[in-house]
Specification:
Length: 197
């Protein structure tokens, strides 16, 4: 069975920007639910768990046709949350020199990247994410609907902003723009630095 990565902080560590109740629910109910459903579908298909979870989406043809779309959805739900939860921290790691150089080169500056990120986030219709990814040699901000995921397209995700209502609605209600601003207050580069190539 696949298992969840541990949450890399306590539920209250991101207060007041991301509230304790939301983080607890998001991890224990939402992400756990994607994982449980994924495992159920895989077991129904007699899957042997022979691939690392990140590669599962490249082997969809091994599963029953009627389950493939649902497997893809639950798989994206697990992986996208892994990146999102690792995009935030209480004791923030600054971006590495190499990543800073790439961000400056691509977006002009970190502030310009944040402005572009917020614009894309506000433009996203319905549920989804805005990711910072490496796509071959390019760094880019890219939106995904629902649980579609950069892992499906061979992209290397570095940071993710979850824009499903479950990520913010309890605390922010309809104030999505404030949630986005406050996400930047807890933005952490540990995962991005490690995975930037
Ligand atoms: Fe979520």
């Amino acid at each position: 069975m696949y298992t969840l990565l541990p949450l890399p902080y306590s539920y209250d560590d991101l207060e007041p920007y991301i509230d304790t109740h939301t983080i607890g629910l998001h991890y224990h109910k939402h992400q756990q639910n994607y994982l449980n459903k994924l495992n159920e579908l895989l077991q129904k298909n007699n899957y042997s768990y022979r691939y690392p979870i990140e590669e599962l989406g490249n082997h969809l043809e091994e599963f029953n046709k009627e389950d493939q779309e649902n497997i893809l959805f639950q798989w994206g739900g697990v992986l996208n949350h892994n990146v999102y939860f690792r995009s935030m921290a209480k004791d923030k790691t600054p971006m590495s020199d190499a990543l800073k150089e790439a961000i400056d080169k691509t977006f002009g500056s970190f502030d310009q990247m944040k402005a572009e990120w917020k614009k894309q986030a506000l433009a996203l219709k319905g549920s989804g994410y805005v990711f910072l990814v490496q796509d071959k040699d390019d760094l880019k901000l890219i939106s995904f609907q629902n649980q579609d995921t950069p892992y499906r397209y061979g992209m290397n995700p570095l940071l993710a902003l979850d824009l499903w209502e479950h990520a913010y609605y309890l605390n922010y209600e309809n104030k999505k723009d404030l949630y986005i601003d406050n996400f930047f207050e807890v933005l952490d580069f540990y995962f991005a630095n490690q995975n930037f190539k």
